[in-house]
Specification:
Layout: H1 2-24, H2 30-48, H3 50-65
Helix pairs in contact: 1-2, 1-3
Length: 72
């Protein structure tokens, strides 16, 4: 669960930082501010959070590949 939590918190933090920077740059329309922050943070997370994304993918893959216990 830890890699998923780390990745999610990093994505939320990146979105918040992007939102704050755009707000400080003078973007005050709420809809445009949120959409622009979402797009910019999405592109930035693709580049910056590749290690975390790989860890989440590995974690999910290991959970899926794990054999289920057989019940009698």
């Amino acid at each position: 669960m830890r890699p998923v939590l780390v990745y999610t918190l990093c994505r939320i933090g990146l979105f918040a930082v992007t939102l704050l920077v755009l707000l400080l740059l003078g973007l005050h329309n709420p809809f445009v501010l949120i959409v622009a922050s979402f797009v910019i943070s999405g592109v930035a997370s693709y580049v910056l959070l590749s290690k975390q994304r790989d860890a989440v993918s590995e974690r999910i893959s290991n959970k899926i590949d794990r054999p289920k216990p057989q019940s009698d």
